[in-house]
Amino acid sequence: MPSLSFSAPTSVDEAVKVLAGASGLAKVLSGGTDLLVQLRSGRTRPDLIVDTKRIPGMIGVREEGDRFVVGAATPGAMLYENTALTRAWPGIVEGMDLIGSEQIQGRASLAGNLCNASPAADSVPAMIAARVTCLIAGPNGKREAPVEAIVTGPGRTSLQKGELITEFHIPKPKPHQSDAYLRFIPRTEMDIAVVGCAVNVTLDAGGTCTDARVVLGAVAPTQIIVEDGAKALVGHRLDDATLAALDDAARRACKPIDDKRGTIEYRTKVAGVLARRAAAIAFERAGAR
Amino acid sequence: MAKQHVSTIINGEPVEYLCEPQQTMLDVLRDELNLTGSKEGCSSGDCGACTVIVDGRITCSCLMLGAEAEGRTIQTVEGIAQGDKLHPVQQKFLEHAALQCGFCTPGFIVAAKALLDENLNPTEEETRYWLAGNLCRCTGYDKIIRAVLDAAAVMREEAAR
Fold first, then answer.
1. pTM to 2 decimals?
2. With an 8 Å Cβ cutoff, is A188 touching chain B?
3. Which residue intervals of A69-122 are DSSP H helices?
4. Looking at the structure, do residues B115 and B147 belong to the same domain, yes or no?
5. Are strands A5-7 and A48-51 parallel, antiparallel or unpaired?
6. Is residue B65 domain-shared with residue B25, that is, in the same domain?
7. B22, A39: Cβ pair inside 8 Å?
8. Which residues in A lie closer than 8 A to residue B129 (C-beta atoms)?
9. Which CATH number fits domain A61-171: 1.10.150.130, 3.40.190.10, 3.30.465.10, 3.40.50.2300?
10. Which residues pair with A71 in a beta bridge?
11. What is the distance in angstroms between the Cα of A46 and the nearest Cα belonging to chain B?
């Protein structure tokens, strides 16, 4: 890295200007828990690093009417310390909270986890399941996009030159709506998901599902929305036949790879198991409110 | 590339330094400021030997750029004792022999101190989870956990006085 530059803008406009004007590779720095490792290993060789944490609003959780607004660089610890958000979306918060140690939680952010674009990113499935959107600032102004539109493949995003995510918009849950996220790893902590699954359900007063989203991680190049999984849940209560249909839909949606963390066959089976277990938790939580 | 000029507070003292954009906070502490208590273990945020407290939160200083420290407040293991008086966590590490080679110890001391700043009465489980980002090859962890829980007890007594 003979010519790395560092910039710490104090406004979104300034950040966009610096990013858009960069010659060569520009990287956005939030918590740095992925970026600094890649910098060190030489996997990324940026010409410019733009630290976004001095921009007002980039860190923090606030409630605005029927939604939460979470600054893009807000560290995981600030999510689980926020009682209202934790109560509203336990699945989103537990997904983020699964990432790394206390040291990592003080730095790692939703935007970083999303834009690092790992298929196994733990915070992403539950955000997609809750229909979270991101506000993106860029040279052509601001645009809003659903979280699932950001990652296009491992390490790749749809963000254009000069663009950065500034905040996430998380809708507040409807009555009898809740979520859950589960991941499988071969140990209990500090590992990368072999499979991750988020389930978000809305129930009627009788416990029948009226709306659902099922999202898998680490079983395809990007997170995947299991449309047939949602169909298996909507119109049904949580019974054995419903769970079997969900399990089947989750397994059919998988397009995993063989690697040191798991084989295709194993990942596919675990996806079905996690979908059933996450659905059971989400139904229980939704029914309890 | 021009060096970054940084003004920050380390262990209560205003500090200014120049650093390269790619230098980590750990590089700056050790190589520029001669604060070699923070150790370089993995350089990837796995081992916690470089743990420092930044604006009240524990952070792996290997995963932070030196340039990010502008205007922040940083505490390193060198700032844990009050002059010659060891912090209860340090004292209890000695009494419980919660170290052998000592390489991980600064990171554990800083992380444990930050835990007790927030919670004077952590359970064993909370303590083990809190310290899960610090790796130790020697002790098997049990002596470390005993030392931290004992330090918490001492601090509760001091707080009750």
1. 0.96
2. no
3. 76-80, 83-88, 90-97, 102-105, 110-115
4. yes
5. parallel
6. yes
7. yes
8. 102, 189
9. 3.30.465.10
10. A167
11. 10
Domain edge (last residue) among B22, B47, B79: B79
Tell me: the pLDDT tens digits for B117-155? 999 999 999 999 999 999 999 999 999 999 999 999 999
CB contact under 8 A, B133 and A104: yes
Distance from CA of B8 to the nearest CA of A (A): 15
Phi and psi angles of residue B17, each rounded to the nearest 5 degrees, phi first = -150, 165
Q: Which residues contact A252 (CB under 8 A, 6 or more apart)?
A: A228
In sequence order, what are the residues at sequence separation of 6 or more whose Cβ sits closer than 8 angstroms to the Cβ of residue B102? none
Q: Tell me which residue in A2, A49, A103 faces B58 most closely, judged by beta carbons.
A: A103
Reported ipTM: 0.96
Show which of B23, B55, B79 is a domain's final residue.
Answer: B79
To the nearest whole percent, how much of chain A has pLDDT over 70?
A: 99
- Rg of chain A over Cα atoms, rounded to whole angstroms, equals 19
Residues B96 and B50 in one domain: no
Q: Tell if the CB–CB gap between B132 and A190 is shorter than 8 Å.
A: yes
Contacts of B51 (CB under 8 A, 6+ apart): A103, B38, B58, B59, B60, B61, B106, B107, B108, B110, B111, B133, B134
The single residue listed with the structure tokens 């196994």 is A120
Mean pLDDT of A86-95: 98
Which residue is closest to A39 within chain B, CA to CA?
A: B22
Nearest-neighbour CA in chain A from B161: distance (Å):
30
CATH number, domain with residue B123: 1.10.150.120
Q: Give the residue on A whose Cα is nearest the Cα of B25.
A: A36
List the 193-252 stretch of A: residues with Cβ below 8 A of B.
none
Residue of B nearest to A49 (CA): B21
- CA B142, CA B156: separation in Å to the nearest integer? 21
CATH number assigned to the domain with residue range A177-287, chosen from the 4 options 3.40.50.300, 3.30.390.50, 3.40.50.20, 3.40.250.10: 3.30.390.50
- Tens of pLDDT, residue by residue over A130-159, are 999 999 999 999 999 999 999 999 999 999
The beta-carbon neighbor of B24 closest among A36, A49, A189 is A36
Distance of alpha carbon B93 from alpha carbon B86, whole angstroms: 10
Expressed as residue numbers, the domain containing B69 is 4-79
